[in-house]
Amino acid sequence: MDTLVALPVSGDSFLLRRDNYNILVDGGYSSRMLIAALSKPRLAISHLHIVVCTHADKDHAGGLTDLLDKSSISVGEFWLPGAWSESLPELLKNPDLVVNALIAEFDNFSPQDNPTLNQDHRSESHARKSIVEESHEAQRKSEHEHEGPEQQDVDEFESHMHALIASERRKFERDSRSNDDQLSPEQQVGNAGLAWLKKQTESLELNELNDADSAKAFGRGRKLLRQQARKNHMDQNWTAFGLELIDTAERIRKIAVQAIRHSVKVRWFDFGEFAKTKQASGGEPDLLVPLNAVEVVVPPPPTEMMMYMLRLTPVNEECLVFLSPGPTWRHRGVVFTGDSPLGHGSGYRLSLLDWPTERAQWVVATAPHHGSESNAVAYEHLEAMTNVELWLRSGGSSKHPGPTFRRLPQVQRGCTHCPRLGLKRGIAEVQLSDQFKGPSFRVKPHDCSC
């Protein structure tokens, strides 16, 4: 029996067991919690055929950073965002360089940007200015609408910043994001996935000393940014945003180093390449395919002049979305939405999915962004494509889920816990029978009372 399991961890982590494959989509916040969940007698996972990281946000990627180094679990393939290649060469070789660049970018962040920057840097300066002015406006609105800083809606601030940065990223168009068309088949093999990562570290020894030096670089960056925040009286949301960028850089590096160290096959899925044509491709037919990405053999090259702030922000709009359609039309599909709003444009009202219409007419879907109201439009987008019989939710804070998820009929929703009620996390396991029987919980911690 195929099953979908929402793991009892902080953040998002789902295990799909289908056709004798174990597929992990995201790892939550903590490797310790993830390893403990996968090792429970009910699951007893020793090998994961595919591990997907939908984006670098802490509650999705955090649990993957030490999965291999701190457990006996083995991994066959890592499926990673192609956008990581914008930062990985420098992150692997010289994380100090990336940290220093981030600190410098934040140091320049004020509504009065230096007008003497030369012509080559004007587009970057414009990006800085618009981001800073918009962030200050978001903060003023937040403080006006709530009684105090402790009640500010962090989700709203994050969503606003992600939308703004997604807009800025789109201004840095690449003539050709992918190198695939420019390389011979032999060159592609030599630059694919794991081989590409290993090329970035040819002159390095990825040993404990290298790990310690890397950790020291990121720790120093956090310390400097906190000092800068106190000196410049940065608001708490903006400071937290900067610290999270440093954390994101460290997560991306650690996952890549694990792949190199344990010789795990790496496959790249690029949202930017998809955005050019709105046609998804790649993955494994019948098992797992992208809905908003293109699989590329060679990761896209970095874009010149793009700030590290733009490169490293895990923009929700670019979060990878995957479908497991099942081997025949009779089989129930599974959609992993991650933190994606499944749309783009103003309010994400325009659908951004390349749906394979001939398959997966009935699906179980993971609730977008823990059921956050900022992603409410995602329910409409997916339900316009297929019949969603069950929304499975995990992670989130005491403010999750939002009213859209809570308005769903109780039989159409499930979760690992109800954060608003403070219930204990537990495994939520759904049996994926064929479409004539309907999905059913094999195990659930409680009836969803969100």
Outline the structure in words.
Residues 110-125 and 138-152 have low confidence and may be disordered. The protein has a domain at 1-20 and 325-450. The chain contains 14 helices and 17 strands. Helix 2 links the parallel strand 4 and strand 5 (74-81). The strands form three sheets. It has a nine-stranded mixed β-sheet with strand order 8-6-5-4-3-2-1-16-17. The chain is of the alpha/beta class and 450 residues long. The chain has helices spanning 31-38, 58-61, 88-93, 95-107, 122-145, 154-170, 185-191, 193-200, 208-232, 236-261, 271-277, 308-312, 377-383, 403-406; strands spanning 3-6, 14-18, 21-25, 47-52, 74-81, 265-270, 289-290, 294-296, 322-324, 333-336, 343-344, 350-351, 362-366, 387-393, 413-415, 428-431, 440-443. This is MBL fold metallo-hydrolase. It holds the Pfam family Lactamase_B. InterPro entries: Competence_DNA_uptake, Metallo-B-lactamas, RibonucZ/Hydroxyglut_hydro. Residues 119-149, 169-180 have a biased composition (Basic and acidic residues).
N/C terminus separation = 28 Å
Helix content: 25-40%
- What characteristic shape results from the CA principal axes? globular
Biggest sheet: strand arrangement: 8-6-5-4-3-2-1-16-17
Mean residue pLDDT: 85
Number of strands: 17
As residue ranges, the low-confidence spans are 110-125, 138-152
Strand coverage percent: 15-25%
Radius of gyration: 21 Å
What is the tally of helical segments? 14
Biggest β-sheet description: 9 strands, mixed
Secondary-structure class: alpha/beta
Organism: Pseudomonas pergaminensis
Region (Disordered): 110-155, 169-189
Domain Metallo-beta-lactamase: 8-80
Biased composition (Basic and acidic residues): 119-149, 169-180
